[in-house]
Design goal:
With 402 residues, this protein is an alpha+beta fold. The chain has ten helices and 13 strands. The longest helix has 23 residues.
Length: 402
């Protein structure tokens, strides 16, 4: 039996965290190649990107395998420009990491022919998965976006502070891009009811600011972000607990693409298959099938078939159809889970190309996913976060009724 009274903690990191800087640059490369393909007439389905980024003091290294319409010279030039724009947008203009002066090495090369032959479609073979692996999706009724409350609000705090910082007005303008948050939430009868611990470490530009000064800056934003009544006199605050935090970002600690996979998903409240998302085109099922699993799980909960739902998908490289689908409704389901598994396979084509077509993933929508979570976001008109829609709920109900 699941516990009903407990504490659960999740963390988030800001767009200026060293690893998130790398995620952003890698996803800017994905978006760049989709945009360039559209300009050249190259089919979007032919774009391939597996891009990893390393960032440290005054240095960015971008490496990986790609298929693009660009010449090698143009590719390197445009990738460097995209990286500088990303660093500028995040807000880094410090001596140890400045968008204008950071040295950028581009070590991208053509995709391996051995991988391509397994993934590309031919007249005799349907397009296969870009790799083997397992992917998980999850949804629950703890927040309006059907996300676990701890990670959802940890993201919200940092996003609100980033907006305030970038406005250049008010006390938040004294903060820097690098930050981490952590929220411990108390559950009663299985529902989130309050916050017992709040942790925030944020870079600040004024060396004279103390931890207390930073606390006074951020507290109003945090209180405005969390639900009414969740912060009490017993809530413990840890704001910049180590003191001064002036040197931030890749100048303070090296960053790498793909090191914040729990932050990117469900904050530890649900399983993770282990594959990172950023820097990968949607033929990589690490990314696209995780989006599909979230989409299905969210629609199951939106259809009021369960209070909580976990979905696992599995794939083999070069094989189109998923090897398995597994549904767990954690004892909250209103239908048989095996019957639901069969229904989900009816309502959505879970081959790599089927997922991309259903969710509209062959386009430049990825840089925005690099910070504040890939899930629990608002679907946008241009196709961004399409996996957050709940438009499949009627079809799931109809398949179950058939």
């Amino acid at each position: 039996m699941a516990r009903s009274n407990y504490l659960f903690t999740s963390e988030s990191v800001s767009e200026g965290h060293p690893d998130k800087v790398c995620d952003r640059i890698s996803d800017e490369v994905v978006d760049l190649f989709f945009k360039e393909a559209a300009k050249s007439g190259m089919a979007a389905s032919e774009v391939r990107v597996a891009c990893e980024t390393l960032a440290t003091t005054n240095r960015v290294v971008i490496a990986g395998e790609v298929r693009t319409s660009l010449s090698e010279k143009d590719m390197k030039s445009k990738v460097k420009s995209a990286a500088r724009r990303a660093i500028k947008a995040i807000g880094y203009e410090q001596s140890g990491f400045h968008w204008k002066t950071v040295k950028i090495d581009v070590l991208l090369h053509s995709q391996s022919a051995d991988i391509a032959v397994g993934v590309d479609s031919t007249s005799n073979k349907e397009e296969g998965a870009g790799d083997q692996g397992i992917m998980f999706g999850y949804a629950c009724r703890e927040t309006p976006e059907l996300m676990p409350a701890p990670v959802y609000y940890a993201h919200q705090i940092l996003e609100v502070l980033a907006v305030a910082r970038k406005s250049g007005e008010g006390p938040a303008a004294k903060l820097g891009p690098d930050a981490k948050s952590q929220i411990t939430i108390r559950y009663e009868d299985g529902k989130p009811v309050g916050v017992t611990q709040i942790v925030l470490s944020t870079q600040h530009l004024d060396e004279k600011l103390s931890s207390k000064d930073v606390h006074n800056i951020v507290e109003p934003y945090i209180r405005a972000t969390l639900p009414d009544g969740w912060i009490s006199k017993d809530t413990v605050w840890h704001v910049n607990p180590t003191g001064k935090f002036v040197i931030g970002g890749p100048d303070g600690d090296a960053g790498l693409t793909g090191r914040k996979i729990i932050v990117d998903t469900y904050g530890g409240a649900a399983p993770h298959g282990g594959g990172a998302f950023s820097g990968k085109d949607p033929t990589k099922v690490d990314r696209s099938a995780a989006y599909a699993a979230r989409y299905l799980a969210k629609n199951v909960v939106a259809a009021k078939l369960a209070e909580r739902c976990t979905i696992q998908l599995s794939y083999a490289i070069g094989v189109a159809k998923p090897l398995s689908i597994y549904v767990d409704m954690h004892g909250t389901g209103k239908v048989d889970e095996a019957k639901l598994e069969a229904a989900l396979l009816q309502v959505m084509d879970l081959t790599p190309s089927g997922i991309r077509n259903h969710l509209g993933l062959n386009k430049a929508i990825y840089a925005r996913t690099a910070a504040y979570g890939h899930f629990g976001r608002k679907a946008s008109r241009d196709g961004g976060f399409s996996w957050e829609k709940t438009d499949l709920a009627p079809a799931i109900k109809a398949a179950l009724a058939a």
